[in-house]
From TrEMBL:
Protein name, as recorded: YARHG domain-containing protein
Segment forming the signal sequence: 1-19
Keyword Isomerase among record annotations: no
The species this protein was found in: Saprospira grandis (strain Lewin)
Keyword Ubl conjugation attached: no
Superkingdom: Bacteria
Domain YARHG, chain residue ranges per copy: 189-270
UniProt-listed InterPro entries: YARHG_dom, YARHG_sf
Keywords recorded for this protein, A-Z: Signal
Length: 278
């Protein structure tokens, strides 16, 4: 059974990817692709906003679990199931620092809920153990990874839990959507530029910002995933904003929209840097 296999960290899900301060990164999140020839009228004219893929909304699912968080705790392990009306779920097993979240589709037959997972987001230890190390261990660093996932998650009975000794505690989860990236960040309330994660950016709104504003705007995405900044000034800035830092690489956690917006910001930065040379 999967839920006994992976200790992990949960809300505080943090960790952020190295494209953060990535002036030197080669991933698509901080693209260094060459900027096209500047036009005399507007050197930004060739830039385009990212395009969102079209999604067709399916019928809403009706069941008592929709909008609910079913939680169970035993020993030092915490299991949580989150249900959404689009038929998606999130399942987490938590220890102190390591995130492990599976997402996919759920279905119900009365009180029995079955799961069909399709993706697993988790932290891979990438550093020495921080003592003490008991039933679960904390490491000095993690690398965030995402893999397609098709192994079964055991079905649950929402009324029985695992018997009288381990019943579910039930809460309203208050999450607006089943978007996995919003769930993994869990730090958007601290952000001043959350639009980088929420909508396609327009070149026109970026070109009048300073290089420093663009740099902070771009790196705030990674701070929201708790990236460990190598740049001391960035590390101090985001620590002061209340962001945690546990991962040296969370590229795998970034959404396609975030990657595209970061690439656009980098293009604007490149043009501005060229302009300062003249």
């Amino acid at each position: 059974m999967y839920k006994k296999m992976i200790p992990l960290a949960f809300l505080g899900l943090f960790l952020a990817a190295c494209a953060g301060e990535a002036e030197t990164t080669t991933t698509s999140t901080s693209s260094e692709s060459a900027v096209q020839t500047e036009t005399a009228a507007d050197p930004y004219a060739h830039l385009k906003a990212p395009e969102l893929p079209k999604k067709e909304a399916g019928p809403k699912v009706e069941h008592e679990v929709v909008g609910k968080h079913y939680a169970m705790a035993y020993a030092s392990t915490f299991e949580s199931y989150y249900f959404f009306d689009d038929g998606r779920f999130m399942y987490t097993v938590n220890s102190d620092y390591v995130p492990s979240v599976m997402t996919g589709e759920w279905s119900a037959q009365g009180n029995k809920i079955s799961f069909k997972p399709d993706a697993h987001y988790y932290g891979k230890p990438n550093g020495p153990v921080i003592p003490p190390c008991g039933s679960s261990c904390t490491h000095a660093d993690y690398i965030m990874e995402m893999k397609s996932y098709s192994r079964a998650i055991d079905p649950i009975d929402i009324k029985e839990g695992q018997g009288e000794e381990l019943p579910f505690e039930v809460y309203e989860h208050g999450l607006k959507s089943s978007d996995i990236h919003t769930f993994l960040r869990a730090k958007d309330s601290k952000r001043s530029s959350a639009e980088v994660s929420n909508r396609p950016l327009q070149p026109s709104e970026l070109k009048n910002k300073s290089l420093e504003e663009l740099r902070l705007m771009r790196n705030e995405v990674f701070a929201a995933y708790s990236y460990k900044f190598k740049d001391k000034a960035l590390a101090a800035h985001f620590k002061a904003q209340g962001f945690k830092s546990h991962s040296s690489d969370v590229t795998a956690f970034l959404s396609p929209l975030e990657k595209d917006n970061i690439a656009l910001i980098k293009q604007v930065e490149t043009i501005k840097k060229e302009q300062t040379k003249h």
